[in-house]
Specification:
By secondary structure, the chain is α/β, with parallel strands linked by helices. It is 43% helix and 16% strand. A seven-stranded mixed sheet has the order 5-4-3-6-7-9-8, sandwiched between helices. Strand 8 and strand 9 form a beta hairpin. The longest helix is centred in the N-terminal third of the chain and has 46 residues. The N and C termini lie far apart (53 Å). The N terminus is likely disordered. One of its GO terms (molecular function) is protein-L-histidine N-tele-methyltransferase activity.
Length: 378
């Protein structure tokens, strides 16, 4: 039988050295995690403050992006993401060379992107196309009834994508609205679409870039970060807004509602909220739910959440099933909202993904939902 213990003094020293190195590595890793969270929060706040002082507008963003696309088209190479037989979307490809060429507002972001997919509180993976966002796009394009029903009761139609990253679900909804107007020339849809992400750079270099790559004009003029505090112009009937910030910042909700209601007497909220890969952490369930309820119209509003059934790994533990359990057992929310899984995606190659429908329990949508011929998953 093989003996696992060292026999010689040299082997003992070698074994002891390995154990000491491992202990040091674990301590260093724990220290790095704590420092990373502290450093990430401080640096992110500083980045937002610095960017606010520049007072850039979405008009400047569009002009800069269009100029870059003309001068350096290789920096805007894209992958084709198939949504359905009729629809494929372009998503900007951010490889190492492209990342090195971009001048990010956050000077540390290029280093983070080369090191990790997610750095909690600093960067939440917005520059990667995640499979759940594609699943949500596919569901939206195959279930236009959500948009059709909202159009019958909501004018203008207010849409938001929370934690948008590349913004493909919101872009899918815009394509769907364009399609409806194209089929029926008598339909003229007024809408507001808000893209929200933690990072200004994600909004600028992914969300906006993908709008332009998919031939969607960006009308209007609005604030691109929650810290500017100015009022957008609402001269156009169609508006696209970009709002950056952390979900636990109360001013984020105010900024997202302000773009819908520039006048003091107006109190508009969102009719459709879409979001994907945003409930992977148990720690975020509380602030995520509160933000959704603060933004969602209480009469006809509906939120579609696409995520994996379960997430595994350090600092994760979330997922659709854990989130449903959270809603059911939290007394602050279980009397306010209803939620159900409307579809499940199992491609036998990765974790099962599910789409969750969320709405106010006593709303008109709750009654409307009972009449909508859409299957639910058990």
């Amino acid at each position: 039988m093989q003996n696992d213990f060292p026999h010689t003094n040299e082997e003992k020293k070698e074994k002891s050295s390995e154990q000491l190195s491992l202990t040091k590595a674990k301590k260093l890793d724990r220290g790095n995690q704590l420092e990373r969270k502290k450093f990430g929060k401080q640096e992110h706040e500083q980045t937002l403050n610095n960017f606010a002082k520049k007072k850039k507008s979405i008009t400047n963003w569009v002009k800069e992006a269009e100029k870059e696309m003309q001068l350096s088209p290789k920096l805007f190479e894209s992958q084709l993401v198939k949504i359905s037989k009729e629809l494929s979307l372009k998503a900007r490809t951010l490889n190492k060379k492209t990342i090195e060429s971009i001048r990010f507002e956050d000077p540390k972001l290029s280093q983070i992107l080369n090191a990790t997919d997610i750095w909690q509180g600093r960067y939440e993976g917005g520059m990667k196309v995640w499979e759940c966002s594609v699943d949500l796009c596919t569901y939206l394009i195959s279930h236009p009834i959500f948009v059709e029903k909202q159009l019958s009761v909501s004018k203008p139609l207010n849409i938001a994508e929370i934690g948008c990253g590349h913004g493909l679900p919101a872009i899918t909804l815009l394509k769907l609205l364009q399609q409806m107007e194209g089929i029926d020339k008598t339909i003229s849809v007024n809408w507001n679409v808000t893209f929200q992400d933690l990072n200004v750079d994600v909004l600028k270099h992914c969300s906006l870039a993908n709008l332009l790559l998919n031939d969607i004009q960006v009308p209007g003029h609005c604030d691109d970060t929650l810290t500017e505090g100015g009022k957008p112009s609402h001269k156009d009937a169609k508006q696209i807004h970009f709002v950056s910030g952390n979900w636990n910042d109360a001013s984020l909700k105010d900024a997202m509602l302000q773009v819908l209601s520039p006048s003091k007497g107006d109190k508009h909220k969102y009719d459709i909220i879409v979001t994907s890969e945003t409930i992977y952490s148990l720690d975020n369930f509380d602030i995520f739910t509160q933000l959704i309820l603060d933004l969602l119209d209480q009469t006809y509003g509906v939120c579609l959440v696409c995520a994996k059934a379960y997430y595994f790994g350090d600092d994760l533990g979330g997922g659709v099933q854990e989130y449903l359990s959270f809603l059911l057992n939290d007394d602050r929310f279980n009397k306010l909202v209803d939620a159900c899984v409307v579809t499940r995606v199992d491609d036998q190659m990765s974790n099962i993904r599910e789409i969750l429908l969320l709405y106010y329990r006593n709303s008109q949508f709750a009654e409307l939902w009972k009449k909508m011929d859409i299957e639910q998953e058990d």
